[in-house]
Amino acid sequence: QAFFCLLLCIPWGSSCPPSCQCTERAGAKAVLCSSRHLEEIPKDIPKDAVFLKLDANSITRIPSNAFRHLSHLEELDLSRNAIEKIDRAAFKGVAAALRTLDLSSNRIRNVPKEALLALTAKLRLANNPWHCECALQEVLWEARLDPDSVQDITCHTAPRQEYVGKPLLQVLDAGANFCSARQRTTDVAMFVTMFAWFAMVIVYVVCYVRHNREDACKQVDYLKSLPGTHGEAT
After folding, report:
1. What phi, psi does 97 have (nearest 5°)?
2. What does the H/E/C string look like for the chain?
3. Residue 124's closest CA among 148, 97, 93, 95?
4. CB 141 within 8 A of CB 168
5. pLDDT, tens digit (0-9, with 9 covering 90-100), for 152-166
6. Is the pLDDT of residue 9 over 50?
7. Is residue 71 classed exposed, middle or buried when 0-12, 13-18 and 19+ CB atoms within 10 A define those classes?
8. pTM value > 0.90
9. Where is the LRRNT domain (predicted)?
10. What is the CATH code for 21-129?
11. What is the pLDDT of residues 28-65, one digit of tens each?
12. Spatial distance between the Cα atoms of 46 and 69, rounded to a whole number of angstroms
């Protein structure tokens, strides 16, 4: 009974993952998991964590709701990993409190803009093999980026070879717009849809008129075929 009482009395929200070290910083819990050869985000991070360092590991993906239970989290360091994929809802649940998010020095080529634009945190995205596209351009214009690292967001690949190897900010300042092609595609798709709809209306009207004309002709032929019709006509 004493054992079960002990289990019930343990503050599970304050437990610490075995691969990490938990300390206090000015009364706030810091969870330090740097350089621990982690391949995924630990599941048992304390709910009252305010600072979380997961840098210098081998994490490859940030799945949906990875930090949802960490409503007090203010600083999150995921730099120097091998992150390639970030799910749309990766940071769901931490958007309100998060002040700093470091994703620098990973393997991120693209990211769903919804994952980052929902945040008010200061973002560090430098030193990733970015593919310069519309979503990244929107993140650059709308997200709160760390001004000291924004120049290191470089086009590793791009629709045009002349942009490769250049800072994205420099490319955009030179007049490039990666969202214009998407807008043209959307406009064309809308035009095709409207044309198809208009064509369907025209076909319907033509068929309707033709059907009514055929019915009218049949009615006239029927009236002509009646016995009294010829007598009245004479």
Report:
1. -95, -25
2. CHHHHHHHHCCHHHCCCCCCEEEEECCEEEEECCCCCCCCCCCCCCCCEEEEECCCCCCCEECCCCCCCCCCCCEEECCCCCCCEECCCCCCCCCCCCCEEECCCCCCCCCCHHHHHCCCCEEECCCCCEECCHHHHHHHHHCCECCCCHHHCEEEECCCHHHCCCEHHHHHHCCCCCCHHHHHHHHHHHHHHHHHHHHHHHHHHHHHHHHHHHHHHHHHHHHHHCHHHHHHHC
3. 148
4. no
5. 999 999 999 999 999
6. no
7. middle
8. no
9. 15-51
10. 3.80.10.10
11. 999 999 999 999 999 899 999 999 999 999 999 999 99
12. 9
* pLDDT at residue 212, rounded to an integer: 74
How many residues comprise the chain? 234
The pLDDT of residue 160 is 94
Hey, what are 121's tokens? 């945190």
How much is the pLDDT for 180?
A: 87
Ordered by start, the domain boundaries in the chain are: 21-129, 181-212
- CA distance readout (Å), 31 to 45, 53, 66, 80: 8, 6, 15, 17
Give the separation between CA 124 and CA 139, rounded to whole angstroms: 12
Kindly report, residue by residue over 182-234, the tens digit of the pLDDT: 444 343 344 445 545 656 767 666 677 776 777 777 666 666 666 765 555 44
Q: Residue 118 is encoded by which pair of tokens?
A: 């929902």
